[in-house]
């Protein structure tokens, strides 16, 4: 009898750096930098292929072109329709995300580094009501390496990570 052991997604947090937060007036920008030990093309697939997006971020329907859309569904809890503004495979992807009545911009930039790549995620124009954006992105990015390898992270793990990160990203509303 043979058994196959598949590594389960990690519930604990990595030592990845916190997002860099800049506040301007009534909006914020958060920037995450991640060094990933995967080829750029595999990370691009995790950002754009519906099955891989579902593994780390949300269920997705993708029309991958400038002017196309990415329809996201977080298990029926929340849905959002993104409008793609930049699509330059496999290096740059950006979309408009409506939050708090405003258009925000989510941008992914990938650059090769050795046998892996560097991912920079920038979410700008976020209204201050977007208090959970920082810990939320951070928690989802924790699941990205597993998604690159075709492993889904359960929603419960992502939300536990986000809760754990809550104190790392203090409230915007003092």
What's the arrangement of secondary structure elements?
Layout: E1 20-24, E2 27-36, H1 40-48, H2 50-56, E3 59-62, E4 69-73, E5 79-88, E6 92-99, E7 102-113, E8 116-127, H3 133-148, H4 155-165
Antiparallel strand pairs: 1-2, 2-8, 3-4, 4-5, 5-6, 6-7, 7-8
Helix pairs in contact: 1-2, 1-3, 2-3, 3-4
Give the H and E element order.
Answer: EEHHEEEEEEHH
The biggest sheet, with number of strands, parallel, antiparallel or mixed sense and barrel status, is:
8 strands, antiparallel
* Integer count of domains: 1
End-to-end CA span: 59 Å
Bulk shape: globular
CATH homologous superfamily title: START domain
Structural class call reads: alpha+beta
Query: Which CATH architecture?
Result: 2-Layer Sandwich
Q: Quick one: CATH class?
A: Alpha Beta
How do the strands of the widest beta sheet line up side by side?
1-2-8-7-6-5-4-3
- Estimate percent helicity: 10-25%
What's the count of strands?
A: 8
CATH topology: Alpha-D-Glucose-1,6-Bisphosphate, Chain A, domain 4
Overall pLDDT metric: 90
